[in-house]
Amino acid sequence: MSNVSGNMLPLRVTACGICCAVGYNAPASIAAIRAHLNHFRESDFIDGAGEPIHAATLYEVPVWGHQRLRHMYHAALSECLSALPDVGEDFFPTIILIGAERDRGTRFTKSLNGILRAYTPSMGYTHGACWMSLGKAGIANALQTANDIFSKPDAPEYVIVVGVDSFLDAATIDHFLRAGRVRCSHNADGFIPGEAGAAIALSRKPGKQASLWIEGVGQSHEAATPENDVPLRAHGLTQALRQAIEQAGSQASDYLFHASGVSGEQWYFKEAALAMDRVMTHKAASFPHRLVCQSVGEVGAACGPLALGWIASEMGVNDDILGHRGLLHFANDNGQRAALALHYRE
Question: Quick one: 68 and 186 in the same domain?
């Protein structure tokens, strides 16, 4: 995967929508994440010992498979669009949809195009749309694509980035169980499978009040994975973080926290710690690591838009909770790494 290149226009997060296990809209979801709540419950999947696997599932949603992903997509997208100011009935959004990476083997990847083209009750059919099967680290590609769209002469006022994903299908659960990656009765060092849809609206125009701006995007590749024997050095994530900081025109010492899509496995916590140790050359007394997956479980491609919506709200409520600058990073099992430099400002 090539690095994100070129000049990155600062992109402003103007609205969001979320549908996940702890809330079927953004305010409910963000309140639960802020309170460190979760909705991890026994699922119908079982581990090798015959014990139920805990999962972060949507409840009282009586559809499954592709229809379930479509439900999450519609819920997140509709909420995000309804929050946009000055949008008329003839508004048709430009949408970038991120789904599970192809090499993960999930059957849901094949339905992305159908989901993207599906009818949205309030807005009609979307056009000017694209989709990418790149998982949680695909947020970097989505933002670069949004940047390219905004650079065109006939650029729209908003670009919507939507992520939708689910780890709750038999093939996915079986794969990660055999790899020793799912948290279960005989493995405490694993992730909680989850599902979610999340959407953010991006603009390059300033708002009437302070907002979250994405000022830098970095991308790289890590040779080591949790399932191979390559020594973990975290060079890929380090490079992505440095690239994002450089693109933002800032210094590592300007940032006050980092947040990530780490979903519970110690391997990824170690990678984040190694990368931050290299990037943060000026040691701070406190540099907290905030996690979204501790509440929603592993939600794959939905993690990027969900984390951005959550952080935008968190920084808007009280700047002292996180600070006005932060780093956000994501890692795929296939080695793709993505990092974002964030700034909450007018």
Answer: yes
The whole domain housing 322 covers: 211-345
Closest CA to 259 of 293, 233, 221, 286: 293
Determine the 3-state secondary structure of 106 from DSSP: coil
- End position of a domain, from candidates 152, 172, 203: 203
Which residues, including other chains, have CB under 8 Å from residue 204's CB and lie 6 or more apart? 9, 10, 11, 12, 150
- 87 with 75: CB under 8 angstroms? no
In this structure, are 320 and 276 located in the same domain?
Answer: yes
Give the end of a domain, one of 165, 183, 203. Answer: 203
Whose CA is closest to 181, among 92, 283, 96, 298?
A: 298
Instruction: State phi, psi for 266 to the nearest 5 degrees.
Output: -65, -30
The CATH number assigned to the domain holding 234 equals: 3.40.47.10
Q: Do 166 and 219 share a structural domain?
A: no
Is residue 51 a part of any domain in this protein? yes
Task: Classify residue 180 as left (phi > 0), alpha (psi -120 to 50) or beta.
Answer: left
Q: Is residue 67 located within the same domain as residue 166?
A: yes
Under 8 Å between Cβ of 265 and 181: yes
Tens digit of pLDDT for each residue in 293-321? 999 999 999 999 999 999 999 987 765 66
The SS3 assignment for 89 reads: coil
Give the Cα separation of 242 and 125 in Å (integer): 39
Sheet holding 325-331, edge to edge: 130-133, 94-99, 159-166, 195-203, 11-20, 211-221, 336-345, 325-331, 258-260, 289-291
Q: What is the pLDDT of residues 169-201, one digit of tens each?
A: 898 999 999 999 999 999 999 999 999 999 999
State whether the Cα torsion 195-201-204-209 is positive or negative. Answer: negative
